[in-house]
Amino acid sequence: MDSLLDALQEGRLIELLDNNKEDALQFLAHIIEAIPSLPAGTDVMERVMARERAANSALGKGWACPHTRVPFEEDLMCVVGWSPQGIDYGAPDGIPVSIIVMYLVPENQRNQFLREASMLAKALKSYADMEKLSAAGELNEIRDYLLDLISSTRECVGPDARARMIQLQVRPSVAPIPAYDLANLIVEPVTIVTGPGLKHIVLAQNRHLVEFLDSARGLVEKLATEGVFQNDGWRVLKRGEVTYQGDRILYDCLAIKTADANPKTDR
Which residues, if any, are the signal sequence (predicted)? Predict the structure, then answer.
């Protein structure tokens, strides 16, 4: 399960504070949308929810594996969410979902995804310590649980894979954060109001984000045509829009940035 292992390596194990299914899937989808290599305007949330409406992705035993395919070539992308309370996911066995493993599957990665999904399903049938999931109290315990599951599922771990597992288990608690590490994200809801002859108005709690977007050139144009505006480390994603009288438009957005990209993040 290399992509799941990559998600643990690169900080894409996220605690889900909201136990609503759609909100949890939306949050994880936006984490994937923040990955720099993803083409701008890729609506992961809509794709995931469309597939979820067609077939529930619950695997049983407190796990779910939502995924969607995209018509371009890239690496297989994975993000993992942990819900301490459990999410009413509509699982066939009735068990609330605690672990959501979300995949974005590019055209060239379909076979790799099928292999990984098959190994995950096999792990859930054979892993002897499934009760550790409900006993875990914090994110590091969940990480260790997932590492145990991965290592126990591999019938034969090669030298490279074994070295990666050792690196994960013994790496220092304070380590350099690579540019693609999403463990330290700032995620801010933003409302933007605009209209003919009007300068756009930005409503958000983060003062520095408001100051930045107030003066951002091309913000409204990018949101209207591409659904995303990216500059100075911020990625602003349009989630929806409402048109009012006088052609005034309200954009409901989410702004995402890694915390280390800008030290001025106080509110």
Answer: none
In whole angstroms, give the CA distance from residue 217 to residue 231: 10
Residue 59 resides in a domain = yes
Partners of residue 148 on adjacent β-strands: none
Domain holding 87: CATH number? 3.40.930.10
Whether the model clears a pTM of 0.70, i.e. scores above it, the answer is no
CA angle 79, 83, 85 (to 5 degrees): 175
| DSSP assignment string, 168-198 | HHHS-SS----TT--TTEEEEEEEEEE-TT-
Q: What is the pLDDT of residues 163-199, one digit of tens each?
A: 444 344 433 333 333 333 444 567 788 999 999 999 9
Cα–Cα separations (whole angstroms), residue 37 to 33, 75, 159, 226, 261: 9, 9, 29, 16, 17
pLDDT, tens digit (0-9, with 9 covering 90-100), for 196-223? 999 999 999 999 999 999 999 999 998 9
Using the CB atoms, write b or e for 3-16: b if 16+ within 10 Å.
bbbebbbbbbbbeb
Look at residue 175 and tell me if it is in a domain.
no
Q: For residue 34, what are the contacts with CB-CB under 8 A and spacing of at least 6?
A: 182, 185, 235, 256
Tokens of 82: 């942990």
Strands of the chain, DSSP E: 13-15, 58-60, 63-64, 67-70, 77-87, 97-106, 185-194, 201-203, 228-231, 234-244, 248-258
The boundaries of the domain holding residue 86 are 2-170
Backbone angles phi, psi at 249, to 5 degrees: -125, 135
